[in-house]
Amino acid sequence: MDQVVLVPDPERLVHLQFRRFAGCPVCNLHLRSFAQRYDEIEAAGLREVAVFHSSNAALRPYTADLPFAVVGDPEKRLYAEFGVESAPRALLDPRAWLGIVRSVLHTMWGMVREGRPAPPTDPEGGRLGLPADFLIASDGRVLACYYGEHADDQWSVDDLLRLAQSARETVAEPQSTA
Q: Collapsing DSSP states into helix, strand and coil, what is residue 70?
């Protein structure tokens, strides 16, 4: 945080992911999976950037140990620019419930065992944000995107690596002149 983040990155593909609020249990569990496999992500030539609709100050206690860029966007300017929504279905969709329970338990475990901070009771920007993922080429083209239908609906690391490989193969194919 508090650094310049280039999107697009002139040398790498960018995975730009939109998350919810600082301390969101679902978001934090998801981002931990990316942190655990960050070496693979970097080896694939990807730059990881996570955007939250919270201020950088609110994010710091929850994301300071992440190995990739985290951007606060409390005014939701980037959300609007990329068409990322908030909706009650973020939490009300039954497909999200198992992920919510799993992430809340993981958060509670982290609070007890590791002294991690508790999620906020009244988060900046609200609780109803939907996740979204974008794979952006170095020239700024969006190569792939996904708009989540609920709070726990986003690309996994495996999805990202597969999409990045596919994007590279597509870009490397010679264009026909027919």
A: strand
